[in-house]
Specification:
Distance between the termini: 42 Å
Number of helices: 42
Shape: globular
Largest sheet: 11 strands, mixed
Radius of gyration: 33 Å
Length: 1023
């Protein structure tokens, strides 16, 4: 591909100098370009291009950018035509504001430049005094593409990304041109550095880093994991430090904003920072990107790279594939390069002597008694991230342990986890055998893996004790860097019961003692994985890490369901039947797969089958439980497990103990239940009783006190000792507190849930919870959140009643709530009809009294108190003025509000430097004022002015994270275009509003869809 360099540098306030050349930077042509011509595009780059879900038509933007570069002299078009047959790399060097412009959407009036065949690919070229031109160079490796994939998914960072899905799409896309995909599972930068250090310097061609990224205090950060799974906000420098002297030729930062410069372009993007630290080529995303688009881009890119295409060619094909599939965010993908851009990373598949990729997976070695593969393919595996991380730490790093024991109830995926571990450890020689193990079996399997005939003979020499033969072989393989990973699957067949536990059968015990001794004797690197339904008694298990498994929950359960035909969102199966089946499966993967087949069967009465299983789940138990296991539940264990049914989520051991008061030898029974698989253990050691067991909570006496103890136990061990609780954990505390009639806990947790759900537009949930709490205790905070939910659903009279009751119940000394109640209530009054003077006076009295207490007792900043006081008062008075047809007075009052938000709260400056979190609430309030002014202008016939105000409001609602009001505003803009007769623009905004309203389940959706139908009808008439 021919490289055309465009170097844009500011020379005066409103002008830039464009220098362009092909090969020789000293033989350049130059032009002076006026920024005024694209001033609005620069503003859009910060506003719509970045933050709007429906930005200005990219064809229009791309055309204007192209014309601005081409100018009236039309210098660009002939130059592109000259090299058209070769394909062109458009190396664009920019600074600050110009770096924000969407160069990827350049459009010549016929198509986007990236759509041409061969394509013209914009590359964001980072030039400086030492980098005068961009070159494509480097010799391709005659082997398969070698990619290092690391996904980050820290605890308590939402949403949880489908990183397994992205890995699967990459593997699927490269089936015909296989690659070697090495996965770093910890998500931790230091572990990434250790992994890279274990390979040759240029072993990896690409680093694919997937996860959430953001701007923190205006600086780009990638959210990685600490060694214990917490969030770590890593800079480009942190990444470069861990990969120092080992940076792959291409780095793909598959996270939002990784290609976005901060602070109006003055802060380099993360991709650009990595170039300064020695990277040669970096791909990133210019803003928030849809997960589906990011995954599709990765699949398309690696399909082309693994086939031997140059990086620029592969990126061009990626753009074209995304555009063809109508990917919304295709234009946000950005390629950054500095001096030398690598060409092809590897040779094509058929090149003589090309080294092939290693086998994709060892899953085919895991066979059931019928000889069928019993574990999911590498592409279909989901979940178990923390368990994988724990096991990999032992298998890769530990010097004290020789392996892991994965144990738990049938169907939880023990074999699947073992297969995943094998795939994550490609440097090991992986040997899998299922079922019974004896000396002859072991020797036979290991002999198959030995290349040297003498070694095979020595291992088969029956005259020498097994452990000595194993020691010799293990030592030789260790010295050759060929360690074994021995997987003993379905190991329970090697056990026999003894004294309410399990022990090894004699022959299996001898083999296991020999294996462990031989590995430990010379501290070799061989490792063992055992999968077994039960933990068992064996002295050598002191050298194993025990990894229990529990059912799938939360995001992992959702991912599993998404991959099952009957359970996924596209399924035509009745939702009630899906819900019933999912409850029956209780998160057990095997039961989910079994029930999935039943739900798909159109020849049977599915409802009848599910009802039968609900009434008597014996058929389900047969799938996952051995009859002998149930016989081990004596009376005490049965009572302990029955009491544990009070908890629906995994809970700390102390919480389980709180509902098992005065139960003798409780610790023993808990340990025994875990060993037998009758108690599930989560990655954080929390415990849960499986619902598949033949137990009943209803048989426990004094259930009220049981719920009370459970609520108090979780409140102590979760709420008071844990920094961050999930929504599910809060719901669990609330549920138990309500059932146990614990008023204080119910109100405290219920208030937080109501506040959270209101912020997420889940108003029906809020109403249900608040009304349940008010049956137990009357509380002003609960009444307030109930009022807000009723108001949001349009139930005005109910909302007014609840706001009034909330004020009557609220003590003035409350630090914050009186102001919140006042603002909610007075805003409702101002919008929804004539004010009752006595109610208005009561609201104002409470508001100013509470404000005075805040200023005197809590040290609130005077200027913020003044802003809230004046803006709320002005907004109230403006609403009254509009109803009295005093429009100019209303405009003046609203404009005063804007002045206070901008001058006192400094909203524009904070947004400009990326401090979104500090102004979220203020952004929403300011956006509301802008909507009021927009409506006034539209009613006065000032359409353009009104539309601009609505656009500003939509942007601010986005900063505030207020998708509900953003959708309403977009709908208003679309309605304005429709009334003007521009159906194209109307449909753009109305479609976006409709999509958001559908997602948020908003009542306004029906009206918007009718407007869309009206606009489409008008289009058909005019066509």
């Amino acid at each position: 591909m021919q490289i055309l360099h465009l170097d844009l540098k500011p020379v005066a306030e409103n002008y830039v100098e464009l220098r362009y050349f092909v090969d020789n930077p000293n033989q350049y042509e130059k032009r002076s370009l006026c920024l005024t011509e694209i001033a609005d595009l620069i503003k859009l780059a910060e506003r719509d291009y970045y933050v709007s879900f429906f930005p200005e038509d990219y064809t229009v933007t791309g055309r204007r950018l192209y014309n601005w570069l081409d100018g009236s002299d039309r210098w660009l078009q002939p130059l592109l035509d000259k090299y058209r047959r070769e394909g062109i790399v458009l190396a664009i060097a920019t600074t600050e504001k110009l770096a924000h412009l969407p160069w990827e959407v350049l459009h010549d009036g016929v198509s986007f430049l990236v759509e041409r065949v061969p394509a013209i690919v914009p590359v964001r070229w980072v030039s400086d005094s030492t980098v005068k031109k961009l070159t494509i160079e480097g010799e391709a490796e005659n082997r398969a593409l070698q990619v290092l994939f690391m996904a980050t998914s820290p605890l308590n960072v939402k949403p949880v990304l489908d990183f397994e899905g992205e890995e699967a799409r990459i593997l699927e896309a490269t089936k015909r041109q296989p690659l070697a995909l090495t996965v770093e599972e910890s998500g931790c930068l230091s572990e990434l550095g250790h992994l890279v250090d274990g390979y040759d310097r240029d072993y990896f061609d690409v680093l694919h880093l997937m996860g959430h990224a953001t701007l923190q205090d205006g600086q780009p950060r990638f959210i990685t994991e600490t060694a214990t799974g917490e969030a770590n906000y890593a800079s480009a420098g942190d990444i470069a430090q861990e990969l120092q002297f080992r940076l792959p030729k291409l780095i793909f930062l598959s996270g939002c904003r990784t290609g976005q410069a901060g602070n109006s372009g003055s802060v380099p993007s993360m991709a650009e920072e990595l170039l300064k630290s020695g990277a040669k080529a970096v791909l990133g995303w210019g803003q928030k990107v849809l997960d589906s688009d990011a995954t599709a881009a990765a699949a398309a890119l690696y399909q082309e790279l693994s086939a031997g295409k140059q990086i620029t060619e592969a990126v061009a094909c990626t753009y074209q594939a995304l555009i063809k599939n109508k990917a919304r965010d295709w234009h946000l993908l950005r390629l950054y390069a500095a001096g030398n851009l690598p060409g092809s990373l590897v040779t094509p598949l058929r090149k003589p002597g090309r080294k092939p990729a290693p086998p994709l997976s060892v899953s085919t070695q895991f066979l059931d008694p019928a000889g069928k593969v019993k574990v999911p393919t590498r592409e279909s595996f989901v979940g178990r991230r923390r368990q994988l991380q724990n096991c990999l730490r032992v298998l890769n790093q530990s010097t004290d342990e020789v392996g892991v024991l994965i144990h738990g109830m049938g169907g939880l995926g023990k074999s699947s986890l073992a297969a995943r571990l094998c795939d994550r450890l490609p440097t090991f020689e992986r040997v899998v055998w299922v079922g019974r193990i004896d000396e002859a079996n072991l020797v036979s399997r290991l002999t198959e893996k030995l290349d040297d005939n003498e070694e095979r003979k020595r291992l088969q020499n029956y005259d020498e004790e097994l452990k000595f033969r194993l020691r010799r072989v293990f030592q030789q393989l260790h010295e050759q860097a060929k360690p074994f990973l021995l997987v003993l699957d379905d190991f329970e067949v090697n056990l026999e019961p003894r004294d309410q536990s399990y022990v090894l059968q004699p022959e299996a015990a001898e083999v296991m003692k020999a294996l462990v001794w031989a590995i430990r004797e010379n501290s070799t690197s061989h490792r063992i994985i055992i999968t077994c339904r039960y933990d068992f008694e064996f002295t050598q298990l002191q050298y194993f890490c025990k990894q229990p498994l529990d059912v799938l929950q939360g995001a992992d359960l959702q991912k599993k369901c998404d991959r099952l035909t009957a359970f996924n969102s596209k399924s035509q199966v009745d939702e009630a039947l899906k819900s019933q089946a999912q409850k029956l499966a209780d998160g057990n993967p095997r039961l989910l797969e079994w029930l999935d087949k039943i739900l798909q069967n159109t020849t049977v009465d599915v409802a009848a089958i599910l009802n039968r299983l609900t009434a008597d789940p014996v058929e389900l138990r047969e799938q996952v439980l051995a009859e002998a296991l149930l016989e081990q539940m004596d009376t005490t264990m049965r009572e302990m497990l029955s009491r544990g049914l009070v908890f629906e989520l995994p809970v700390p051991k102390e919480a389980l103990a709180a509902v098992c008061e005065n139960m003798p030898n409780l610790e023993h029974y808990i340990s025994r239940a875990v060993a037998l698989g009758l108690l599930e253990v989560s990655y954080d050691q929390a415990l849960r009783v499986p619902r598949i067991l033949p137990l009943a909570l209803a048989l426990i006496k004094e259930t009220d006190s049981l719920y009370k103890n459970a609520a108090n136990g979780l409140y102590r061990f979760w709420w008071q000792k844990t920094e961050v609780l999930t929504e599910e954990q809060k719901i669990e505390i609330y549920r138990l507190a309500l059932l146990g009639k614990e008023e204080n806990i119910t109100v405290e947790i219920g208030r937080l849930l109501a506040q959270f759900w209101n912020s997420k537009y889940k108003y029906q949930k809020t109403i249900l919870v608040c009304k349940d709490i008010l049956k137990l205790v009357r509380n002003h905070q609960i009444m307030y959140y109930l009022a807000k939910a009723e108001e949001s659903l349009g139930h005005i009279s109910e909302a007014v009643d609840f706001y009034t009751q909330a004020l009557q119940l609220c003590p003035l000394e409350d630090e914050k709530t009186p102001l919140e109640i006042f603002q909610g209530g007075i805003s409702l009054y101002a919008r929804k009809g004539p004010l009752e003077e006595n109610v208005l006076n009561e609201f104002l009295r409470v508001y100013f009294s509470a404000l005075q207490i805040q200023q005197e007792n809590y040290g609130i900043r005077t200027e913020l108190a003044e802003v809230f006081s004046l803006t709320m008062t002005f907004e109230l008075r403006a609403g009254i003025a509009i109803r009295e047809n005093q429009i100019e007075l209303a405009k003046f009052l609203y404009e005063c509000c804007l002045d206070f938000y901008d001058k006192v709260c400094n909203i524009p400056t904070r947004i400009q430097i990326g401090e979104y979190s500090s102004v979220n609430g203020l952004c929403g309030s300011k956006a509301r004022i802008l909507c009021h002014l927009g409506t006034i202008n539209l009613n006065q016939g000032k359409t353009n002015e009104g539309r601009k105000l609505y656009l500003q409001a939509a942007q601010l609602f986005d900063y505030a994270g207020d998708d509900h009001n953003r959708a309403v505003t977009l709908a208003a803009i679309g309605t304005g275009w429709l009334r003007q007769g521009d159906t194209v623009m109307a449909l753009n905004y109305l479609h976006e509003a409709s999509a958001m309203m559908q997602l948020l389940v908003m009542p306004e959706l029906e009206v918007v869809n009718k407007l869309i139908t009206e606009a489409q009808s008008e289009q058909e008439k005019n066509s």
